[in-house]
Amino acid sequence: MSGTDLLELSGLVAGYGRIEALHGVSLTVRAGEVVCLIGRNGAGKSTLLKTVAGLIRPTGGRVLLRGEDISGRPMPWRTRAGVALVPEGRRVFAPISVHDNLLLGGYGRARKAIAAGLDDIYARFPRLAERRGQPAGTLSGGEQQMLAIGRALMAAPSVILLDEPSLGLAPRIVGEVGDIIAGLAGAEAGVLLVEQDAAVAFRLADRGYLLDRGHIITSGPAATLRNDARVRSAYLGAIPAPGEQHH
Amino acid sequence: MEHIPGYVLIGLSTGTTYAVIGLGIALVYQVSGIINFAQGDFVMLGGLTFAFTAEQGAHPVVAAALALTVTAGCGAALHLAVLAPARDAGHDRLIVLTIGASILIQGSAVLVFGADQHFAAPFGGDRQFQAFGVSISAQYLWCAAAAAAVAAAVWALLSRSQTGRAMRAVAADRETARLMGIAPLRMGLIALLLAAVLAGIGGVVLAPIQPPDATAGVPLGLKGFTAAVLGGLTSPLGAIAGGLVVGVVEAVVTGLVSSGYRDTIVYGLLVAVLLVRPGGLLIAAVRERL
């Protein structure tokens, strides 16, 4: 784990219209880390990811990427600067082919960079290569999640934001997607993960933050957090006891 | 009844123009969600600029280039000055704005070109060809060639270029397209610019057959709209097929019944499709291809 803060949120205030969903949130993601964001429905997790991606303009606080304030930057700029969001529900472009979905992930990049990115994605996800000509809407849920992640990787991101990647997937597929996510953090890249499946979240994450009604309640290493009563209550007891195996 | 093949041929010939107009309407609707009722006026503007400039003695190629420049400029102005600033107004109000733009373009055309028709010579001389017992102006071959070229160019753009992919992405899921770094408004501008140029091309090749005046655009726009609706409104290929259908229906009704019922039948078809199959007659057949 390197010590540089890849992504830093400080005192972030944001919401939808007049409804404020985040009341001054601060957190950091370092390169090489998977950081999970835990909280009940409506805690503000998706709002936070969308604000970092630029879909929502913050009304206060700052979003820093490698120390630079990007709060006022438009979304195309953030995409090129290395912020990628894999949205909740995957949101692949259903009528468009798998191949073209991936090419769209590289929108704005040089032709050579896109070609290299494609080779990399197809090597990493051979199943996408097999289905490259199919409309993305015909893929299974797990394949669509792979495509959504692959599409985000086409932008060569350094901050990867994942919103509920295991939602609606069969348990067998959840493990597979988890393995993919575990491989995303690297020397240059960090992951901020919103995940309702506690077992998945704590298996993947190095650290975590508990978000409740727009405030960070607690944070710490995943191993500590998973035994925190407030975290367990946020997951409504869906957490396996320590030592219990998860498949 | 033995004349029907001839009527169909005439219909396909006139239908190429409706196809080009409908293609532009479908493109803009797909990317921006706006039905552009000024699309017919772009055809008028292109044809009128071409005929007027050619009457002044300009070389046809120069006149055509000028016509396309004027329609492209008009399309860009419509997007930048009217639709983009009003983008939060909701689609129904944006559609009303395009009707306003249509009236404005007609008024401006009367001021610049006068209220009279203007005439352009057919490309390569005034020739007719005979087929299935009917005589058709050779200029229609230019219309058909222009429509085919335009359709191929649009297909190549949408399926082969990153800009075309981005336009389809905006059509499929606007918010997620923004996540890819695509600017939907910019795609809307490109779609409208493209639609205006398509209409301009349609207007130039049609001008020698139907000498345009400032009011020529509205019926053409409505037939193009009918074509786009027949094709399901979001399908470029469907709009092209729809345009040919509109042309054939029009020609067969004119030939077998009376030209007096022509528009009644065509717009009746529009109403019937909107009531019965609002997704378009041809949508199932062509949806997968784009």
Automatic annotation (TrEMBL), chain A:
Q: Name one GO molecular function term.
A: ATP binding
Write the signal peptide boundaries: none
Keyword match Transmembrane? no
Record's InterPro entries?
AAA+_ATPase (IPR003593), ABC_transporter-like_ATP-bd (IPR003439), ABC_transporter-like_CS (IPR017871), BCAA_Transport_ATP-bd_LivF (IPR052156), P-loop_NTPase (IPR027417)
SMART domains xrefs: AAA
Keyword Repressor on entry: no
Keyword entries, A-Z: Amino-acid transport, ATP-binding, Nucleotide-binding, Transport
Q: Which intervals hold domain ABC transporter?
A: 7-238
Q: Name one Pfam family in it.
A: ABC_tran
The family this protein is said to belong to = Belongs to the ABC transporter superfamily.
* Family annotation (PANTHER family): ABC TRANSPORTER ATP-BINDING PROTEIN (PTHR43820:SF6), HIGH-AFFINITY BRANCHED-CHAIN AMINO ACID TRANSPORT ATP-BINDING PROTEIN LIVF (PTHR43820)
Name of the protein in its database record? ABC transporter ATP-binding protein
What organism, scientifically named, is this protein from? Answer: Paractinoplanes aksuensis
Automatic annotation (TrEMBL), chain B:
Bilayer-crossing regions: 6-27, 60-82, 94-115, 139-158, 188-209, 229-253, 265-286
Principal location: membrane
- Cell location: Cell membrane
InterPro entries membership: ABC_transp_permease, BCAA_transport_permease
Superkingdom field: Bacteria
- According to its record, how does it sit in the membrane? Multi-pass membrane protein
Q: Which residues form a coiled coil?
A: none
Q: Which UniProt keywords apply?
A: Amino-acid transport, Cell membrane, Membrane, Transmembrane, Transmembrane helix, Transport
Family affiliation: Belongs to the binding-protein-dependent transport system permease family. LivHM subfamily.
Q: What is this protein called?
A: Branched-chain amino acid ABC transporter permease
